[in-house]
Amino acid sequence: MYKIESERGDLFDINMMIAMQIKVSGKSFSEKEIAEAFNDSISAFEILNCKIIIDNGGNAFYDNCPQSQNNINFKDFQLAELIQEQERLRFKLENGEFLRCFVSLSDNNEMKACFLMHHLGGDGKSLCYFIEAFLKRLNGEKTQYRKAIFFEKEELKDIKLPFWASLLTKKYNKEWQKESRVFDFEDMQKAYEQFWQTHKTIVRNEATESEELNQKLSECKANKIGFTSYSIAEIIKDIPSKQDIGLAVDGRLDGNRTMSNQATGISVKYAYNNRYTLIDNAKAIDKMMKKKLQNKNNKYFILRFMSEFEPTLLDAVNLEFTGYFHSKTSAELARLLGYGQNTKDFSITNLTRLDIPTEYGDYKLTDFIFAPPVISYGKNIVGMATVNGHLNTTYHNYQQDK
Asked: On the CB side of 155, how many CA atoms lie within 13 Å of its CA?
């Protein structure tokens, strides 16, 4: 069993579904071959053969699950509609359901597949590695077994927390002792049902073709800045106020290609200055980002910080956001952490050029769209991915039902 620690905040968040849509061309596809490739790939990743249990003390663990409920379905779909439909259906984590796949086949030897994964099944890179294994298996290649790798609390002990952060975690942990309760999967189900009665999300994708993308990349290279910094400047250039921007970051310490949530995150606050060029603004953002990423304490701060809270308090904060549960302590902490109110203005994940091949024997990966989940502490969620010189930028956010 593996104890859920640094990623505990994902457990009771009611929107932790990562979506990736791919298009693949090649020889004719059969549903049987696709299903076999999917199921064989599931068996190759330890985490997808686990389930989550919550003990009487409120501690949560990954435990072995011989018959996981990851599933594949064949149907015609549109991405935005599929996400709206599926994100309100709770992943049955207690039964080993982390991944759903929907496949649409066309008459011209093209497959469109959407992979929907709970964040406790892995991060964005993890799902890319599953897709790679799936396409290799579809091409008749064997899939190597990969054990799950997690950030354990002990591994984060050398990350120094600022004094205010240590003080805050101790204060709220102490206060929570007076109100503490353990939540279970029934609570999670009720929170889902209550929340999704009045909420839905919208998804919008923007494509940047090769010629335009190469021009932007050339500008970035000439000015020694990252493309993510350039993209942030583009996104906020017409917004007059200072923006709080969260950035998901790959936290892998050894470059492993297994599935688990090994993402961390940083944030920068920046007000676009119209007196300067887009490049000058991008340079300023790039400098702020690099300063944080080069400091290990900053890069891994959020993982260490969140792991210091009592696990059930983090559950309560998420359930506070849904309106299912309320207490003085969880309400105060939810406000301080930006759950529901005072959220990040933008939360951006850039997978950059995909870290997987595009050619798989008779098959070719031709398109890739990535929509991160609308997390409880985010407002405007942006996912970016580049394949075959083509960039998709996907915007995902809540829209209140009328």
From this structure: 12
**Average pLDDT, rounded, for the chain:** 94
Q: What is the dihedral of CA 211, 214, 215, 217, to 10 degrees?
A: 160
The amino acid sitting at 307 is S
- Beta strands 363-371 and 17-26 are antiparallel
Note whether 163 and 67 are within 8 A (CB): no
Q: For residues 244 and 249, give the distance between their C-alpha atoms in angstroms, rounded to a whole number.
A: 16
Instruction: Please state, in angstroms and rounded to a whole number, the distance separating the CA atoms of residues 226 and 289.
Output: 10
What is the full DSSP assignment across 206-248?
EEE-HHHHHHHHHHHHHTT--HHHHHHHHHHTT--S-EEEEEE
pTM: 0.95
The rounded Cα 159 to chain-centroid distance in angstroms is: 23
- How far is the C-alpha of 8 from the C-alpha of 24, rounded, in Å? 35
Percent of the chain with pLDDT over 90: 89
Tell me the three state secondary structure of residue 67: coil
> What is the β-pairing status of strands 344-353 and 243-250?
parallel
If we measure between CA atoms, which residue out of 162, 45, 122 comes closest to residue 372? 122
- φ and ψ of 258, to 5 deg: -100, 180
In this prediction, residue 402 carries a pLDDT of 42
Q: Judge whether 355 and 319 are in contact, CB under 8 Å.
A: no
Report residue 208 CA to chain centroid gap: 22
In angstroms, the CA 173 to CA 312 distance is 10
For residue 129, give the nearest of 48, 183, 245 by alpha carbon. Answer: 48
Q: What is the largest CA-CA distance in the chain?
A: 63
